[in-house]
Write a structure and sequence with these properties.
With 97 residues, the protein is α+β, with helices and mostly antiparallel strands. Helices cover 42% and strands 32% of the residues. It has one domain: Alpha-Beta Plaits, CATH 3.30.70. The chain is elongated and about 50 Å long. The two termini are 26 Å apart.
Length: 97
C-alpha cells in the first residue's frame, strides 16, 4: 500500500459546521473503505492546517479519486503528500547511479 499525508483546512462551509467535524471524519473513514483507502490517523491541529491525516491507498489514482470525492463535499481543502518510509527511501536510493 502507498502512504499519504493529507493536510486539510476548513472551508467557510466546514467551519460553520465545525461541531460535526468528528462525524464527518467518521464518514470519511467509512467512505475510504469503499475506495480501498485506509485512514490510519487523523489529528485536529493548530497552525496553518486544521487537520492532518495519514492514509494508505493502493495507488495514486485511487487516492486522487478519493480526495476529489472528499473535496466535492465542500468542507475542507486538502493538500496530499506522497510519503515514503525509510525502507521505501532505501529502495529509491539503491536505484541511484
Amino acid at each position: 500500500m502507498t502512504r499519504y499525508i493529507v493536510l486539510a483546512s476548513f472551508t467557510d462551509q466546514g467551519i460553520r459546521a465545525v461541531k460535526d467535524t468528528t462525524k464527518r471524519a467518521a464518514y470519511v473513514r467509512e467512505m475510504g473503505q469503499q475506495f480501498g483507502v485506509q485512514m490510519k490517523d487523523i489529528y485536529w491541529t493548530l497552525g496553518a492546517y486544521d487537520l492532518v491525516l495519514t492514509l494508505e491507498a493502493p495507488d495514486d489514482a485511487t487516492m486522487t479519486a478519493f480526495g476529489l470525492s472528499i473535496g466535492q463535499a465542500g468542507n475542507v481543502r486538502t493538500q496530499t503528500l506522497r510519503a515514503f518510509s525509510m525502507d521505501d527511501m532505501n529502495d529509491i536510493l539503491a536505484k541511484m547511479k
